[in-house]
Design a protein that fits this description.
The complex is a heterodimer. Chain A is of the alpha+beta class. Chain A has 9 helices and 9 strands. Chain B is of the alpha+beta class. In chain B, a hairpin with a 2-residue loop joins β2 and β3. Classes of the chains: A alpha+beta, B alpha+beta.
């Protein structure tokens, strides 16, 4: 076992950090619940960062590292699905992508808008289609991603079937979810630690009160554990590893999100602080693939039959 | 990042499993309920550790020139995992090889090494750690057991409490006060338990017979040559020891082993079919594996020669979360395990409560994470 980053991975993450630097601290007053940047999306695509998993020498772990790192930005950018799920379908499939469960096709979905490639995962089949203007509606949702809803029955969109098993897609979907959540939790935690260190009440920093310190420390424990579970799952592509990572992601989001806003006090209710740009993305990940119960049952099936 | 074991690491693990299968008695699982510090298990551990030593598996991670094989921290982890998941047949001797030995190797005089390391590496030593006192638990630096140097000997007077293994130990790793300075006034003495003036009283416990004790020191005379390091060095030596201790006990392995056993029993009974137990079991497994991976991340750094510090508290707290969740699962779905139905699960349940208390309480770990990992301002004192 060797958990160090390879030289290639270090170089890629360095390049990614350089690219992402201008996007680290945007003005957010006009951002609303979700912050997006077409320029960032374009730079990532042109830089080949979403294609690393097609290179067997780099593989899914490198894709996972990229998705985790980019999730830390305040911008919501479609990376995880393109970098981790798309390789199942070949490099002629064009991003951005939207992952859709057949049983929940009418739910508001992340990144669903005209022009995106929708991967439709049903109980026994996987198909895809490129959404058109008349098929989708943008949603003004309380989530940190741009959200859209499908207006038509997915059975009638002429989706192209793929010779890919639903289970294989779900494994990568869970890994994508877990690495994105790991980055979101890390950024949200860092943001809360900074605010509560600066903010003085009762003559001392909020973060010097043990009531906050211990809960923030627990969030660190969860975030760290999630990072490693997610990276391991990206390396093994094992269904049990993937389900445990996704379960830990959704459970850790549940355990942390309201604490984070609570610790910011009234500032935690505003759009002036960027915290929601991470936490309200975590909320959007909570319902994927059946939520915690869905991941737990998948994990139990895989671990114990 | 490579998450796969090398062939050599996998073979090492298999060698340990084969050894355990060939060595442990048929009734081992029931026997292990006696607890690591019980007279029965302590006696068995002498035999078991002697055999481990013969196979050169007792201290394989020690340097070659002092009885080890010079194997890396991954092998140390594999060894510790296999022993813990088997119910720790090394008894209290696990402590010797995990941190007492390494601490003596680093800080001991040639005479101390010559006296204490061979019995450890041959599997015939048992130590206890004289840390906590009635007024000094988590606040260890407030300890009051006093060692006064008169001529070439210390006179030790005071009381230790909640001391594991003291009833049968041959030597005490004693932390005591040699001056008034809160931290720089603390020193370590290596005290033979047969020293006149030591009285040991067993405290009934939740974690098995013979495990925790009060130890009284009534003007015990200990030669100055028994001091480990210089006077006042204890705090830094303890820091080194506890870092080894925190990484040294892979409790997640036994927690996961107990969880898998509980699920197997439930399946056999036809009681692992509803969603509730399956969801709960998976939640516990996620915490076990998160703790395992958090620990592996630190083992990996040690294997590359990097120092690890506060992050060990994060891995440790992750393990506490896992221990609790597995124990809660068993209480809810297999309560008969806490009676006499499933000795392995009972053994885990007895020992699991230790996770958040010994070697620095859970709250201390959270304080360390807050201050040294998250860099949050300290709480005023």
């Amino acid at each position: 076992m060797d958990l160090a980053l390879t030289n290639d991975q270090i170089a890629i993450l360095d390049a990614l950090d350089s690219l992402a630097k201008p996007y680290a601290s945007p003005a957010i007053h006009d951002a609303g619940f979700a912050l997006t940047s077409a320029a960032l999306d374009r730079e990532l695509a042109e830089g080949g960062f979403l294609d690393v998993a097609f290179d067997p020498d780099l593989g899914t772990v490198t894709a996972a590292l990229i998705a985790e790192r980019l999730a830390r930005l305040p911008y919501a950018t479609e990376v995880a699905a393109s970098a981790l799920v798309r390789p199942l379908f070949g490099d002629d499939m064009v991003g951005p992508m939207c992952l859709m469960e057949g049983r929940h096709a009418k739910r508001p979905l992340r990144f669903l808008k005209a022009g995106v490639t929708v991967i439709l995962v049903s109980a026994d089949s996987v198909s895809s289609f490129v959404a058109s203007d008349d098929q989708v509606r943008a949603e003004d949702a309380l989530f940190g991603y741009p959200m859209g809803s499908l207006l038509v029955d997915p059975a009638n969109v002429g989706a192209t079937p793929h010779d890919v098993s639903p289970e294989d897609v779900k494994i990568r979907w869970r890994i994508a979810l877990a690495v994105e959540a790991a980055g979101l939790l890390a950024a949200a935690l860092e943001s809360v630690c900074a605010y509560t260190t600066d903010r003085q009440q009762f003559g001392r920093p909020l973060a010097s009160f043990q009531a906050l310190r211990h809960r923030l420390a627990e969030a660190q424990v969860r975030t760290n554990g999630l990072y490693w579970l997610a990276m391991k799952a990206a390396a093994t592509l094992d269904p049990g590893d993937a389900a445990l990572a996704a379960l830990h992601a959704q459970e850790s989001a549940r355990a942390s999100v309201y604490d984070f806003h609570q610790f910011l006090g009234a500032m935690g209710m505003t759009l002036e602080h960027p915290l929601h740009l991470w936490t309200y993305r975590l909320k959007a990940l909570a319902s994927d693939l059946g939520g915690r119960g869905g991941q737990a049952l998948a994990a139990a099936d895989s671990l114990w039959g | 990042m490579d998450f796969a074991w090398t062939d050599e690491e996998a073979a090492f693990r298999q060698r340990l499993r084969d050894f355990l299968a060939a060595t442990l008695p048929d009734d081992w699982e029931r026997f292990s309920q006696h607890g690591p510090a019980s007279p029965a298990l302590t006696k068995y551990a002498e035999t078991f550790c002697g055999k481990l030593a013969e196979e050169r598996l007792l201290t394989p991670h020690w340097p070659k020139d002092i009885g080890g094989e010079g194997l890396d921290p991954w092998h140390q982890t594999i060894l510790a995992e296999e022993m813990w998941v088997a119910g720790e047949p090394r008894g209290g001797q696990y402590m010797n090889v995990n941190w007492i030995g390494p601490t003596l190797i680093r800080y001991g005089t040639p005479e101390q090494k010559a006296r204490y390391l061979p019995p450890i590496s041959e599997g015939r030593a048992l130590w206890c750690q004289g840390f906590s006192e009635p007024g000094s638990g988590s606040d260890l630096a407030s300890l009051r057991t006093r060692a006064v140097l008169e001529g070439d000997a210390y006179h030790v007077t005071g009381q230790k409490i909640w001391t594991s293994y003291a009833g049968l130990a041959d030597t005490c790793f004693l932390v005591c006060r040699t001056s008034e300075d809160r931290k720089k006034g603390i020193s370590i003495l290596l005290v033979p338990m047969e020293t006149p003036g030591i009285t040991v009283r067993q405290i009934p416990s939740l974690i098995g017979e013979g495990d925790i004790h009060e130890v009284f020191f009534d003007d015990c005379v200990v030669p100055a040559t028994a001091r480990l390091g210089e006077e006042g060095d204890a705090w830094s030596i303890i820091g080194y020891s506890l870092t080894n201790e925190r990484l040294g006990i892979p409790r997640y392995s036994l927690a996961r082993g107990a969880l898998d056993r509980a699920v197997a029993i439930l399946k056999e009974k036809g009681n692992f079919v509803g969603e509730a137990p399956r969801i709960e079991a998976a939640q516990a497994a996620a915490l076990c594996e998160a703790a395992r991976m958090a620990s592996y991340a630190l083992v990996d750094r040690r294997a590359r020669g990097e120092a690890i510090g506060a992050e060990s508290s994060s891995a440790r707290f992750a393990t506490i979360m896992a221990e609790r969740r597995v124990a809660e699962f068993v209480v809810e779905y297999l309560p008969e395990a806490l009676a006499d139905a499933h000795p392995y699960l009972k053994m885990h349940h007895q020992r699991g409560i230790v996770a958040g208390i010994a070697a620095g309480a859970a709250e201390i770990q959270l304080n360390i994470i807050a201050t040294d990992v998250l860099n949050l301002p300290r709480e005023p004192r």
